[in-house]
Amino acid sequence: MALAAEPAPDFGGSRATGDRSPAARLLMIGAALLLAVTCLANLAMGPAGTSLSGALADIIQGRELSLRDRVVLWDIRLPRMILACLVGAGLAVSGAILQGLFRNPLADPGIVGVSAGASLGAVTAIVLGATLPFGAWLGRWLVPAMAFLGAWMATLLLYRIATRAGRTSVATMLLAGIALTALAMAMTGFLVYLADDAQLRDVTFWNMGSLAGATWDKIAIAAPLILLPMVVAPFLAHGLNGLALGEAAAGHIGIPVQRLKRSAILMVAMSTGAAVAVSGGIGFVGIVVPHLVRLASGPDHRYLLPNAAILGAALLLSADLVSRTIIAPAELPIGILTAVIGGPFFLFILLRQRGIVDL
Amino acid sequence: MKSLSALSWMHLLLCTVLTLAMALSIMTAGQAGAGSPQRIVSLGGSVTEIVYALDQQDRLVARDTTSNYPAAAQDLPDVGYIRRLSPEGLLSVEPDLILAEDGAGPPETLDLLRASRIPLISVPMGFDRDAVKAKITAVAEALGVPARGAELAQRVTEEIDLATRQELSGQRVLFILTLQDGRVLASGTNTAADGIMSLAGAVNAVEGFEGYKLLTDEAILTAAPDVILMMQSEGARAVSDETLFSQPAIAATPAGQNRAVLRMDGMFLLGFSVRTGQAVTELAARLHGSGS
């Protein structure tokens, strides 16, 4: 990745001419505007044809909103918009943190076992359902709860495996992550074999991701888990910048490397675990968005992290808008869209600026 | 003493007023319910078929992905897969009643429908004669045409009874849902395929598991089916006789040696709806034809 490839002295030496923080600030303003527009668009547009301006006029003039308009705006579009923001921002920031931590452009939440763990948890809940202890008691919360639990357990296990004598080896974590993912997928495969028709369908749809189940309860539970890492992320930025020089060098310039690793991994597990639990498998946001930001305004994590959050939210909102409207009254799973939009766009940028991402 | 009786009088009066009010509200609610729904979403192929058979299709405004019969139903807007309904998508067709096969979801969407006061009626599923009757009755009642429903239910159950009164063939039948890369996805017990086979007097060659599962070659040999039953499909999913019988395990079974395979339309065969009597008749007749 760019961070690792650029020789450190050059990085420091070209600081005067290569300072890209104005570009980063500009990007932040642009991304924030985009976010505001997509937020409004998601509130205003949808298959039900309820008009936002009409509803606002009604509210201002003190008229009672019709039950249908209230449900559409307040119980469907607004929670869904907020959830898209949370999930998009959470996934993008997690991706950016992990790429910095692993100094690897391919890192995304999948690399610390989150995706495979969450998938195993969700599929367990879908297939075994009420036969699980607490299954009946948790009811509809069973799938998100198990997905979150699965994500956490996978990450913690991986962290334990890769940590020896108080030092976490990212290389071990990377490799053990692949092994653990394979194991989790094998277990998922076994459950899929046990599943009946309807459960198979549920599993497939879960893997494709959706924000359709957005409710205020889900936001209340997911928001703290996703927002806390957002608040902590800026404090990791300096350390992640230092880590680009290599672990030893970062240690020498006074960065508490082990603490940085631990908090970064825990933050990522918390935020992606929650995001995946409420939305299923939404790919590509965690990898495309940070790279886009890096290409536009450089690898400085102080700007990269917030910009990735804003752009991630905006991207997921746009994808969700398409998902809700393109085949209305039905709905296209959003995971398909993020991949369809993200894949080619990312490839296009890679081909245009090949040099930047060369290892 | 006097004050007490005054109090109890008040009490009585209050109770009467409340009871009257409640009765009135129940009555008006009942009337509102009787003003039968005119914008109906039908979810599930078997339910849609029943709505058409009851001649109530003018009241339909949308359907789900599996509702493909009669062909006219496909002109209605498609609200997607029954277990993944989009709340805003459903609201956008402005329904005043949703008729759904059991298992519609997700629960979040159902909650929002409840919040919008759109009634959802769940139609019970099942794979035998009584289940068909129960389905028709439930749909007809929801549509406010119970008399027509009773008529249709009687006709359909008579058809089924007539079909099942035929001589039982007792053939062992293997129902193959899909055949991909030589892997056979076959029906065990407690499926629509199992139900229709037993109505047609055949024996499901596979027992020992519920639902649809992949069969190993040895399990296929052990099952030793006399006939293989499949769904008719076109294009890439279609399986030719050559492909089917080139599977060594299938070729070695009695069905393989006689090249006995039946293909029937999936919805017709497995829908457990209005056409089930005809499906049983056709299946039984074709089993007899392919017998030995």
Care to give the gist of this entry?
By secondary structure, chain A is mainly α. Chain A is 77% helix and 1% strand.
Structure in words:
The complex is a heterodimer of chains A (359) and B (292). Chain A is mainly α and 359 residues long. Chain A has helices at residues 2-5, 8-13, 15-18, 21-44, 52-60, 67-102, 114-128, 135-138, 142-162, 170-194, 197-208, 216-243, 247-252, 257-279, 285-297, 301-325, 334-352, 354-357, and strands at residues 163-164, 167-168. In chain A, strand 1 (163-164) and strand 2 form a beta hairpin. Chain A is globular. Chain B is α/β, with parallel strands linked by helices and 292 residues long. Chain B has 2 domains: 40-164, 3-Layer(aba) Sandwich (Rossmann fold); 172-289, Nitrogenase molybdenum iron protein domain (Rossmann fold, 3-Layer(aba) Sandwich). Chain B has helices spanning 2-34, 45-53, 87-92, 107-115, 129-143, 146-164, 192-199, 217-223, 241-245, 248-251, 254-258, 266-270, 276-289, and strands at 40-43, 60-63, 97-101, 120-123, 172-180, 183-187, 203-204, 212-215, 227-231, 261-264. In chain B, the strands form 2 sheets. In chain B, strands 5, 6, 7, 8, 9 and 10 form a 6-stranded mixed beta sheet that branches. In chain B, helix 2 (45-53) links the parallel strand 1 (40-43) and strand 2. The N and C termini of chain B lie far apart (94 Å).
Topology summary:
The complex is a heterodimer of chains A (359) and B (292).
Chain A: H1 2-5, H2 8-13, H3 15-18, H4 21-44, H5 52-60, H6 67-102, H7 114-128, H8 135-138, H9 142-162, E1 163-164, E2 167-168, H10 170-194, H11 197-208, H12 216-243, H13 247-252, H14 257-279, H15 285-297, H16 301-325, H17 334-352, H18 354-357
Antiparallel strand pairs in A: 1-2
Helix pairs in contact in A: 4-6, 4-16, 6-12, 6-14, 6-15, 6-16, 7-9, 7-10, 7-11, 7-14, 9-10, 9-14, 12-14, 12-16, 15-16, 15-17, 16-17
Chain B: H1 2-34, E1 40-43, H2 45-53, E2 60-63, H3 87-92, E3 97-101, H4 107-115, E4 120-123, H5 129-143, H6 146-164, E5 172-180, E6 183-187, H7 192-199, E7 203-204, E8 212-215, H8 217-223, E9 227-231, H9 241-245, H10 248-251, H11 254-258, E10 261-264, H12 266-270, H13 276-289
Parallel strand pairs in B: 1-2, 1-3, 3-4, 5-7, 5-9, 9-10
Antiparallel strand pairs in B: 5-6, 6-8
